[in-house]
Amino acid sequence: MTGAGTAAVAAVERVATRLEAERDHLTELDSAIGDADHGGNMARGWRAAADAAADVEDPDAATVVKTTGKTVMAEVGGAAGPLYGGSLVFASAELDEGLTPESAVAFAETYLEKVQDRGDASVGDATMVDALVPAVHTFKKSIETDELPPVEALAKAVEAARRGVDFTVPIRASKGRASYLGWRSVGHQDPGATSTLFILEALLEVAQEHGDVTVADADATSPTIPDEDV
Ligand code: ADP
Ligand code: MG
Questions:
Q1: What's the pLDDT tens digit per position in 23-60?
Q2: Which residue has its alpha carbon closest to ligand 1 atom 22?
Q3: Residue ranges covered by each domain of the chain
Q4: Could you report the per-residue pLDDT of 4-17, keeping only the tens digit for each?
Q5: Which residue among 127, 129, 167, 199 has the greatest number of ligand 1 atoms within 8 angstroms of its CB, and so is best to mutate?
Q6: In the structure, which protein residues have their CB atom closer than 6 angstroms to any atom of ligand 1?
Q7: What contacts 55, CB < 8 A, 6 or more positions away?
Q8: Does domain 3-216 have CATH number 3.90.1150.100?
Q9: How far apart are CA 177 and CA 79, in angstroms?
């Protein structure tokens, strides 16, 4: 098991690798309803973010996420750059006291709020929000109501995001460049919802490999209470 900061660096690296592998796929989706830059923008920007994250000295989760967000904001461009990057920078403050199941939920909620704040998109507009809302709501419910371990909660969130991506296909885009197509956007999968799913899938892989880093960190910082029964 590793600390949350190290896991966060590994997560950004995994996201970059996945987005590089999906570059052509995302480009294809954005060609159909946009300007064909989403694959290149995301792959290039997240590779830069992974390099920046790897350079963080003595990494903690908040600093790694903030560094990632700043780099994504500077390097990705398009509509997606500020939405992904700016929201990551803003939400990183939720991790300042460390990564716990509670702070992970707060991070996810603040990230979603910021994306909606900046982009003014709601569920049904055929944007990244259609993947993000079900993912964040499912994550929160899985942690707070179902009391699932964070990695299982994240797995549920990924499934929910996948259904959100599918939901973008039969609906009309009402925000961003795809909305210029009007009804012709119907029948196309949204590139930003798709990249959101890829990012979540990469995070899940790393979370599964690193074990429960939230518990590991909480254990490391909480005082040891002697067990009087022994
Ligand atoms: P651009 O449209 O400027 O070329 P990208 O191709 O990088 O930007 O990203 C397009 C994606 O950004 C869309 O597929 C959609 O998911 C997302 N997007 C666009 N506008 C908004 C918005 N207002 N709110 C949320 N997401 C948006
Ligand atoms: Mg585009």
A1: 999 999 999 999 999 999 999 999 999 999 999 999 99
A2: 119
A3: 3-216
A4: 999 999 999 999 99
A5: 127
A6: 30, 34-35, 37-38, 41, 78-80, 83, 119-121, 127-129, 175-177, 190-193
A7: none
A8: no
A9: 9
What is the C-alpha to C-alpha distance for residues 56 and 82, in angstroms, rounded to an integer?
Answer: 22
**Ligand 1, residues 41, 112, 128: which to mutate, most atoms within 8 A of Cβ?**
128
d(CA 168, CA 163): 9
Residue 90 Cα to ligand 1 midpoint, Å, equals 19
Which residue's CA lies nearest to atom 23 of ligand 1? 119
DSSP-derived secondary structure for the chain? ---HHHHHHHHHHHHHHHHHHTHHHHHHHHHHHS-S-HHHHHHHHHHHHHHHHHT-SS--HHHHHHHHHHHHHHHT-TTHHHHHHHHHHHHGGGGTT---HHHHHHHHHHHHHHHHHHH---TTSSSTHHHHHHHHHHHHHHHHTS---HHHHHHHHHHHHHHHHHHHSSS---SSGGGGGGGGGTT---HHHHHHHHHHHHHHHHHHHH--HHHHHHHHHSPPPP-TT-
The pLDDT tens digits for 87-146 are 999 999 999 999 999 999 999 999 999 999 999 999 999 999 999 999 999 999 999 999
- 149: amino acid identity, one letter: P
Q: State pTM to two decimals.
A: 0.93
What is the CA(116)–ligand 1 centre distance, in A?
A: 12
